Automatic annotation (TrEMBL):
Superkingdom assignment: Eukaryota
Record-linked InterPro entries: DBL_dom_sf, DH_dom, GDS_CDC24_CS, PH-like_dom_sf, PH_domain, RhoGEF_Guanine_NuclExch_SF, SOS1_NGEF_PH
GO BP terms, alphabetized: intracellular signal transduction
Protein name: Guanine nucleotide exchange factor DBS
Keywords associated with the record: Guanine-nucleotide releasing factor, Phosphoprotein
Keyword Electron transport: no
Length: 292
């Protein structure tokens, strides 16, 4: 933040800033200042207070559950930040900042830190759990780990969500994103003429499902190569079902990884096959919660 972000306002370096970067500090750095402030003013002190009593550490995470959501915001902005970096990363301005700091690594390595940090927390909490079998604070540690895993899940989910294309409405109006993942899907639109068992012979469609409290979206995943860099996935919207009008059949004969979602009194039937029985059960329990 000092060596790069502040330098963007340094009058003596202004002429080195590429035009593509003008007024785009927020895109490049996201809410990094907010993350820094939170750690500097609050979280670091609270963690340091646990040095003598490590069993209190879990409480820091539980107490700051809401605050840690700032990572989600950071990760959501990351694709925009990376695209901008690919455009301007080799400019003289960044080279000059790096030289002054005497850093071996360029700025993009540091912009990855918050993403890495949130995953590091779960590893640290897991390590602490290993060392604290049935001692004081173990239950709280487990709860803290669950909290961090929950944040990682919502970060991960939201990263997929921002890659949805072609959906006409506003995704933010669909309620909370509960689950997302890829499935084999068979579908039957005919009003009950041909039996569902005939469908099982046809080749399934690959669909990426997004389950919201109000809606289930079916998308098709597309891998796109971004100018020679890592593939970025996008999900083109295919169709949606209002959760208020769907029904669910938990078991499909002949395959314990399949379940059915049907619409409008079985007018449309979707047979959905998960990659494992555990995954199927997780989805079913989430869908049940929404339906009840």
């Amino acid at each position: 933040l000092q060596g790069y972000a502040s330098e963007m306002d340094n009058p003596s370096l202004v002429h080195l800033i590429p035009s593509a970067l003008q007024n785009k500090k927020e895109i490049l750095f996201g809410n990094l200042p907010e993350i820094y402030e939170f750690h500097n003013r609050i979280f670091l002190k609270e963690i340091e207070n646990c040095i003598e009593n490590p069993e209190l550490l879990a409480r820091c995470f539980l107490k700051r559950k809401e605050d840690l959501q700032i990572y989600e915001k950071y990760c959501q902005n990351k694709p925009r930040s990376e695209a901008l970096w690919r455009q301007c990363g080799d400019s003289i301005f960044f080279q000059e900042c790096q030289r002054k700091l005497d850093h071996k690594l360029s700025l993009d390595a540091y912009l990855l830190k918050p993403v890495q940090r949130i995953t590091k927390y779960q590893l640290l909490l897991k390590e602490m759990l290993k060392c604290s079998k049935n001692s004081e604070g173990t239950a709280e540690l487990e709860e803290a780990l669950a909290t961090v895993l929950d944040i990682i899940k919502s970060v991960n989910d939201s990263m997929h969500q921002i890659a949805i294309t072609g959906y006409e409405g506003d995704v933010s109006e669909l309620g909370k994103l509960l689950m997302q993942g890829s499935f084999n899907v068979w579908t039957d639109h005919k009003k009950g003429h041909n039996k569902v068992k005939d469908l099982a012979r046809f080749k399934p469609m690959q669909r990426h499902l997004f389950l919201y409290t109000k809606m289930l979206l079916f998308c098709k995943k597309r891998e796109e190569n971004t100018d020679g860099h890592e593939k970025t996935a996008s999900y083109s919207f295919k169709n949606s079902l209002k959760m208020s009008t769907v029904g669910i059949t938990e078991n499909v004969k002949g395959d314990n990884k399949k379940f059915e979602i049907w619409y409008n009194g079985r007018e449309e039937v979707y047979i959905i096959q998960a990659s494992s029985v555990e995954l199927k059960n997780t989805w079913i329990s989430e869908i049940r919660k929404v339906l009840t």
